[in-house]
Design goal:
Blueprint: E1 2-3, E2 9-16, H1 23-33, H2 35-45, E3 49-56, H3 66-73, H4 79-111, H5 115-118
Parallel strand pairs: 2-3
Antiparallel strand pairs: 1-2
Amino acid sequence: MRVSLLTSHRIIIDIAVPLTHNIQKTEREKIAKYENLSIELKRLWKLEKVETYALVISSEGVMTSRFAKNIAALGLSYNIIRNGQKAVVLQTCHISVLQFSSSLYECFTRHSTSIVDIL
């Protein structure tokens, strides 16, 4: 949550990286999740406005239609979109390579097989 002590306006930002088929559902859940918190913040801190933004980008780099709108509303650079997609895809690839490597290692150690036998 970004806080500006000079104004009576607060912003809640939640970032999520779900699977592609869950992207819309995740965005709706994130907005709903902070609805009660927004009301409570307004009441406790006597705020005029509390806004919630969900920045949801899938593990394959797919974004919701609101992503660019939220970036613009937050006053952030559109480079975040490209960089976010790149970071998510690279991290997903990194995890896949690690899983493959560990599976291959287990295969070798469990069966004492050579690479020739596998290929």
